[in-house]
Amino acid sequence: MFTRIVVGTDGSETAAEAVDRAVDLAKLSGAELNLVSAYAPVSRRRIQGEQQGAPADVQYEIGPREDVNLILESAAASAKQKGLEVQIHPVEGSPVDAILGVAEKTNADLIVVGNKGMTGAARFLLGSVPNNVSHHAPCSVMIVRTT
Asked: What's the domain range around 53?
């Protein structure tokens, strides 16, 4: 059925629904699960400022991927509890580029995304993550109804 599944998350409740569906599919098919989360670049000055105010034993953990790593580790923990092999991918850039890049890199055969952002006229003007992923994906895409 599927061997490598990619799913994006931003830590939101709707993204969690897409992750849950991807976990279920990976469990059913014995697939490897790749969790992706994108983050925006953070200035060096801001990172240094945050590190200066932190205790010495945690300064090394402060960086642009700090929040996204927590999101990915949380999603990965629940998938691992179900016995899945999980890879996490924090990617600097847009969510669409992150998901598509990981799908290409891992040779995924399925991308799972939530439908959030696909309603109304704005989807035609601005696009959305599920819309753009579905039009540019190197593999099949499942759009999970989350709203």
From this structure: 4-144
* pLDDT 10s digits, 50-61: 556 666 555 555
102 in Cβ contact with 127 (< 8 Å): no
Q: How many domains does the chain have?
A: 1
CA atoms of 57 and 18, how far apart (whole Å)? 36
State pLDDT tens for residues 36-94. 999 876 656 665 565 566 665 555 555 555 678 889 999 999 899 999 989 999 998 89
Contacts of residue 15, defined as CB under 8 A and 6 or more positions apart, other chains included, come to 8, 9, 114, 116, 146
Phi, then psi, of 39 in degrees rounded to 5: -140, 155
pLDDT tens for each residue of 101-115: 999 999 999 999 988
**Backbone phi, then psi, for 107, in 5-degree steps?**
55, 45
CATH value at residue 36: 3.40.50.620
pLDDT given for residue 52 in this prediction:
67
> How far apart (Å, rounded) are the C-alpha atoms in residues 80 and 96?
25
